[in-house]
Amino acid sequence: MNLRQRILALVLVLLLLVLGVTLAIVSRVTYRHTLERSSEELVASQRMLVDSLWTRDGSLREAAGTLAKDDALRQAIFAGGEAEPESMQLALDNHRRRTNADSALLVDLDGVILVDTGDSARETLRGKPFPFPDLLVADATAVEASPTPNGTFSPRLVTLRGRIVQLVCVPYYVPVSAPRPSLWLILGRNLDESWARAIRELVGVDVSLLGANAGGGQSLFASSLPIAVRAALTAESTAHDLPSGSPQVRELAGEEYLSLSVPLGDSVAAVLDRPTAAALLDYRKLVGSFAWIALLAAVLALAGAWELAHSVTRPIRSLEQAARRIAAGDYAAALPIDEAGEVGGLAREFDAMQRSVRAREAAIQHLAFHDELTGLPNRNEFRADLARRISVATREHAQLAVALIDVDRFQDINDALGHHVGDHLLLALAQRLREVALRRGLLVARLGGDEFAVVFPAPGLPETRAVIAEIETALGGSTEIEEVRIDVSASVGVALFPEHGGDPATLLRRAEVAMYAAKKRHTGTAFYDPAQDPHSVERLSLAGDLRRAIANDELRLAFQPKIDLASDEVGEVEVLLRWTHPRLGQVPPAEFIALAERTGAIREITGWVLDHAIAQASAWRREGLDLVIAVNLSALDLLHAEFAERLRGRLAAAEFPADRLILELTESSVMEDPQTALRLLDEVTAMGVRISVDDFGTGYSSLAQLQRLPVREIKVDRSFVLEMTRSNEVAQIVRSTIELGHNLGLRVVGEGVENEQTLAALRDIGCDFAQGYFVSPPLSAPDLRRWLESRGGVVAGASEAAS
């Protein structure tokens, strides 16, 4: 798309956008105004409806008052007596017709209906309690008052015999000399279809009456709406779904209505409905006219845009070739700057542009290879320069040192004092490194954040350490920024070429490994050590060797006894895993277990341990040696959906009792996914397997986890047990932990017992079990058997240990 076409498209799009927004706003405002006007008319209709009910109520009440004073009716009722209710009903019915009432009732002072002139085809209420006792007023003078909308009384609409009826009540007095007490005269007029049609003629909108039915729901009792719309109204909702006093737009039988709910009693409401089609007719005509106007304006604007685009693009073509040369990097291209008019002005702007581009390219080139804050070379420049120095050192058989420097607690400084103070600190540190670089001939760079890098010749370890010491001295000490004195220290990681790597990426990564090791150990400086590199080739190779060891059954188990401190008996052993590498020798469990968790091999290891441990314990049982075995679980085991089912299969295959197995887990392992872990532990404990919390006290949320886990035992971490005889504070922690476990109904095991004093201390404070090298180091299966025999074997209490 060329410039002319883009101008046309832009003008057209903008015009259509403006016209569209204007049309939308006009349509919305007009639509709202139309609905507001219709809503006001609907609210006025509501007032007319209420006024008509007041008028109807006054008329009915006046008729009731007249009947109450009619001597002929009074005599007929008095002469009928209680024994002739039919005569009373006939007399009352004759007088009811004169008042155009649809129903009339006489109620005694106890609220029982004596006479009911209702439809004989429906159920008579005679002899039943009057269903609306609150209508029986006691103040005769108040009844005779003229009811007004602001007066004492309000029209009473109720659901009676399947109809909506407007009722009034007046007191009725029999002659004083007669023995009959006063009665209540009730008159009612039905609100039916004819009433709804009459109201529609009066207020100009459709009206529907909804009331409570026998089933407790709501039914449509009368409506002036068409039959199809009535069905939709009944099926859609009740009047209580519409807020009273607030007209709402809704669709009934495919037609849009503006509806208003008018509560007329506890269980009666009227819904006023007015079709919006007629009200919106003028609105739709206005919108249609505006749309035609918008279309005509778009056509005219397109014609004008075409002429504008043509006049603009014609002189610009003369600059096309010059622009192409500038795009190709020729910033000295000759431009027609002497041209008059817009073309000359554009040419002069092009000339200014190419000078600005030339200046910006130089600035960008500097920014691409230098840090914006400190002005030092950045990571890109450092890697490029390091690559050049490596190339020179390779030819000259020289050595280089790459030091990665990270400012300690820099994030704390930023958080406490603000980023602007952090930036000033970085500038001060960069200046100090520049001074060292000038003296020593170093290359200094800022890699990002609070990380700096230095590369320098390293003819020997003493010279390297001397340079690093000078860097540490320059960075250390106090720095005052904005009247705040900041103590600065740094962690330095060093990697050597060619010993630790032959390319910039490897040297930087290994210097970073050393830096994090220095930060972790708080040593200030650390040289790269492959043993500390979790991502080294050796460790990757070790991961493969571990999988082969599992597959080839090269692992072995060791068993460490747990002694019952109350009886001095041994009934349980903890299963520990050992691996002897064919080349590296004995690999520490902490190292290869962590490696297995990172590589995903931990589930295979857990399965191997369970299989062999259960098999060994089953063999001991056949030999008469009944021991409970405890096996450690990883956090990844708790997330394995099939762990419980596979454990059930292992126990069944070995015919090993589930209650002779303890699974040990740490608090932190449960927190990986608490819901999944708890589900799995519930399944496992349902088999009879017991759960023990290992390293208790070193995790977080210990109490909260104990309340949720199906735990039977906790093991006090060895870090507390080792120190309890040397520290009263630690001893108090151990004592409190044991009391907590006992209060929760748990057994408590003390780990790491290394001497007799610790064992005695645990026994004195009520610890249940103990294990450690003083009791026995981890033993092979045959050595464990001999060790038990040397102690007299497993006594009868061994079986009780599982209880």
Architecture blueprint of SSEs:
Blueprint: H1 3-69, H2 71-80, H3 85-98, E1 103-107, E2 113-116, H4 140-143, E3 156-160, E4 163-172, E5 183-190, H5 193-203, E6 206-212, E7 218-223, H6 227-236, E8 248-252, E9 255-263, E10 268-275, H7 276-279, H8 281-316, H9 320-327, H10 341-369, H11 379-396, E11 400-407, H12 410-417, H13 419-440, E12 443-448, E13 451-457, H14 461-475, E14 477-481, E15 484-488, E16 490-497, H15 504-521, E17 525-527, H16 537-551, E18 556-564, E19 570-581, E20 585-587, H17 589-599, H18 602-622, E21 628-632, H19 635-638, H20 643-654, E22 661-666, H21 667-670, H22 674-687, E23 690-696, H23 702-708, E24 713-716, H24 718-723, H25 728-743, E25 747-750, H26 756-764, E26 769-770, H27 781-790, H28 797-800
Parallel strand pairs: 16-17, 19-21, 21-22, 22-23, 23-24, 24-25, 25-26
Antiparallel strand pairs: 1-2, 1-5, 3-4, 4-5, 6-7, 6-10, 8-9, 9-10, 11-13, 11-16, 12-13, 14-15, 18-19, 18-26, 19-20
Helix pairs in contact: 1-8, 2-3, 12-13, 13-14, 16-17, 18-20, 20-22
Description:
With 803 residues, the protein is an alpha+beta fold. It contains 28 helices and 26 strands. The strands form five sheets. An eight-stranded mixed β-barrel has the order 18-19-21-22-23-24-25-26, surrounded by five helices. The protein has a five-stranded antiparallel β-sheet with strand order 2-1-5-4-3. The two termini are 86 Å apart. The model is unreliable at 138-153, 176-181 and 794-803 (pLDDT under 50).
